[in-house]
Amino acid sequence: MKYAFFLGCLIPARELSYEVSVRKALPEFGVELMDMKGANCCAPFSIQSVDYDSWLALSARDLCIAEEMGMDIMTLCNDCYESLLMVNTLLKRKPELKDRTNAILSTVGKEFKGKIEVKNLVDVLYGDVGIAKVKNAIKEPFNGLKVGAQPGCHLTKPKRIHFELLRGFNELDSLVQATGAESIPYERKEMCCGGPLRDINDDLSRKVSREKLRALKDAEVQAVTTVCPFCFLQLDLGQLEVKRHFNEEYNLPVVHFIELLRMSMGMKLEDWEIKSHRIPITDLFKGRL
Amino acid sequence: MSELDLNFMGEVADTPRGNGILLCIQCGRCSSGCPVARLTNEHNPRRLMEMVILGLKKEILPTELPWYCLSCFTCLDRCPQGGDVGDVMFAIRNLAVKNGNIPAGVFGQAKALYETTRVINPVRSALEKRESMGLGKLDNEGLTDVQKILKKTGMEKIVASK
User: Fold this and answer.
1) Which residue range forms the structural domain that includes residue A192?
2) How many structural domains is chain A composed of?
3) A252 and A155: one domain?
4) What is the 3-state secondary structure of B67-80?
5) Which of A57, A185, A152 is nearest to A111 (CA)?
6) In what order do the strands lie in the sheet with A118-120?
7) Which of A16, A17, A33, A49 is the best mutation test for B, with the most CBs of B within 10 A?
8) What is the pTM of this model?
9) Class of B8-98 in CATH
10) Model confidence over B37-95: pLDDT tens digits?
11) Nearest to B94 among A7, A52, A108 (CB)
12) Where in chain B are the domains?
């Protein structure tokens, strides 16, 4: 299984540990990740807010690079996923949009053909690798650790590009359960982490995160797991911000799902990876780090 | 008395993501599911749609109203009309930006994209860490292409405006 690996902007800038865990764990399942040379930013919401045609053309340029590689894309970020998936779907469905975008792309010698699919980490692990193979790789299961899974908005929404309501929800839960942990239901699990308003309206952004943290705390989870770097940032570093602004402490360790998987596969996290978590994870995962 | 621009709904509907406004029946399902509307009275997607329908252009485009949405798409899935409220938000934002209303955070990301191909860039220590771990280099070989694309779409002018 080979994928064009779309790294995005936030992960190399702030969450190297996410990338490293993926690069270490996925080869165990026969997944090969090929770097996308010359890829540009996916054109996330900030760029979509500025200009429609720029969004289509920038996303489509990345899709063209994957088409040239002859591989499906795998992204690690819900924002990249939404942008690339939406454009891939729109251009495949609507010939007039495809022509409009290709007219822009012709200035850089590219043409969108619509030959590949866009996938995220959950799609790859659950859909392509398969849950049975994931379960087989678990050597040190978590034995009932109570985990609150945060799917993030664009793993599951909108349904018009996922074809069913909240697709991805159950898949992530199954993957969490596969590690031996228990995926605890909590109120408003489908709710946003608040990330998209960071740097636009920080006060509201924090208030949304706080709602999420409260719901997780109420459900008495021991840890939170995310599959999107924005959700991770918002819920991990976000706890310090919520503490500073609202004087509320949650102390919920947050781990990338791939880290949870790695630990349950018996792979130890390195010191710098452990330290990249703002809410300490050392007590909870003692003996596994 | 507010000044009404009766063409405003048409203007929004004519943008690529804005035609959902024509389907709005003001039922309020968008607002009742909106995580931001729960937390502040400033944001209310149904009311914003109503303001567009009424033609309250000047009360929307130069203000903060376009910039409260999280783009979580809860409203988009809830709209019984298939009115794609979350998409209409982008149509309103695109018009707001054309009117010079662009938050600093959004402008900063757009500028960074134009200058580096990425909206967020690593600090030096992150790049050094990357190199020490033998991870693939972050290239910006796409820069000429990105700049050509943004020149063609006209977004270059917005980025260069400040």
Assistant:
1) 138-275
2) 2
3) yes
4) HCCCCCCHHHHHCC
5) A57
6) A32-35, A2-6, A73-75, A118-120
7) A49
8) 0.96
9) mainly alpha
10) 999 999 999 999 999 999 999 999 999 999 999 999 999 999 999 999 999 999 999 99
11) A52
12) 8-98, 104-159
